[in-house]
Amino acid sequence: MQRQSARLDLPELPHRVLTRDGFEFDPSLSDWRILGLVKMERLRFSRLANFSDRLVHCLKLAIIWHLQNSSISHARNLFDSVAFFYRSQFAHNNIDCDEIDLPRILNFRATLDDKTEWKIGVLRILLEDMERLGLGVTSTDGIQYLKDATFRGNIKGTSIRTRDPNEGSFNDGELLAIQADINNAYASGRIRLYSFAITWLFLGYGPRPIQIAALKENDLIVSEGEEGRFYALRIPRAKQRGEEIRGSFKTRYCSKQIGQLLEEVIRFNRRLRASTGLQGDDWPMFMSKRDGGLPNLAHHLSSERVRYHLWNVVSRITGLKTNAKRFRITLAQRAVDDGKDKHTVAELLDHSDTQNIGVYYEASPAVVPRLDRHLAMEMAPIAQAFAGVVVNTEDEMARSDRSSRIFDRTLNNATDEALGTCGQMSFCGLAIPFACYTCRHFKPWRDGPHEEFMAALIDDRDRMIAEDMSPKLYTIRDRTILAVAEVIQLCAAQLDEEEVAA
């Protein structure tokens, strides 16, 4: 129980509170359960037992103001700051508190170090906001100290500046691996449609999870032209201060691949709604089984669930440490490396200004590793870029007509020796033969000229480096080189087994 103290002329708590996202709850409860598109948040005022009734009352009124005028996550961060302060100063004693005074603030700061001093900065935001709203709970000298003091901010951008391999942007090889691995996993039924589509949206746009959670089916814009269907995608901005989650949008170009994938998602949703009897015309792109209780956002996946889909796919399938932030960092870093200016990068990230863009320009240049035959053979077992199956002869193929053979027409013996056979029964628009070695339909022949093909790829790479071309151009086929190296090793292993058996 909080210690009782006079509330003076403080306003009463409203009977019901409606958050900016449209969720309604009873603020008189000791613990609040607040639903947002991110997740269910729990604010436990009951754990602030040594705070007086008046102090908790003022704190509730301040948090209500932020819930109504800002995001639930921001309100949660402010509550967490005062809860952390409480645990530091009051959790282990029986001292009651009706006012946050200067000695307590100084004691709290003394418990922080360079990496955690930002926490008192967040507390300052809340206490100064309460003072401005007429809900002051800080002593005069305490509030003056907070206004005058300089606190270290949360250290940001270290993983970006250093291009941290586990927290920073993905390199070109990792991006190619992610694309190939999720395509193969979806084709073989190891991941489902939602996970596949969500991962491709992160690859294409580097959005925040809440932006994907807020997408609706009608955000995919389809137009018919003489050359076929064209796509655009309206992406909710979702994080603009003072706006609703779907209060404003950025319309982005949508590739044919992603556009067709989202059309498949929409068809899947229609079948799902038909099977469950749901009716209406304002549906999310990614549906939850539960209504959720948020007006205009019924049946939307939470952003927490979107994060799970991404983690479940990329981390499990590729083994890479990943999160939504890494895709966002990658989008920005690749734009900077390509010479884009700060305003263009800010536009890509949907920032309202360029103040947080500079860190990408501070990042040390990406180191492009040397890749010769020896390194390719060493790295091939780790990369596992080859997705097909080596075959001894063309007779082993279900499809053995000559039109299915794959050649590299630049090789001297291209007319006589095929690299392998395509097992795809339909049209393929990928670049042959470069895309074949990372495709699961490719069946390389055991005696194909794979060594010559890899040598040609490496020579071409060395030529582009010598001509000072962009790394984007000469690293794009690195995964193919590694796949060819793996095929060479598999062919050699099969020959060794036959010799042993003989």
What key phrases describe this protein's structure?
10 strands; mainly alpha; 3-stranded antiparallel beta sheet; hpI Integrase, Chain A; 3 domains; 18 helices; 502 residues; elongated; single chain; 45% helix
Give a concise summary:
The chain is mainly alpha-helical. The chain is 45% helix and 9% strand.
Reconstruct the topology from this structure.
Blueprint: E1 17-18, E2 24-25, E3 31-35, E4 40-44, H1 53-69, H2 72-89, H3 102-110, H4 118-132, H5 140-148, H6 158-161, H7 172-187, H8 193-205, H9 209-213, E5 220-225, E6 228-236, E7 249-254, H10 256-276, H11 303-318, H12 324-337, H13 342-348, H14 358-362, H15 373-383, E8 405-406, E9 420-422, E10 442-444, H16 450-466, H17 471-474, H18 478-501
Antiparallel strand pairs: 1-2, 3-4, 5-6, 6-7, 8-9, 9-10
Helix pairs in contact: 1-2, 2-4, 7-8, 7-11, 8-10, 8-11, 8-12, 12-13, 15-18, 16-18
How would you portray this structure in words?
With 502 residues, the chain is mainly α. The protein is elongated. The N and C termini lie far apart (85 Å). The protein folds into three domains: 17-148, no CATH class; 159-362, hpI Integrase, Chain A (Orthogonal Bundle), CATH 1.10.443; 373-501, no CATH class. Helix content is 45%, strand content 9%. The model is unreliable at 1-6 (pLDDT under 50).
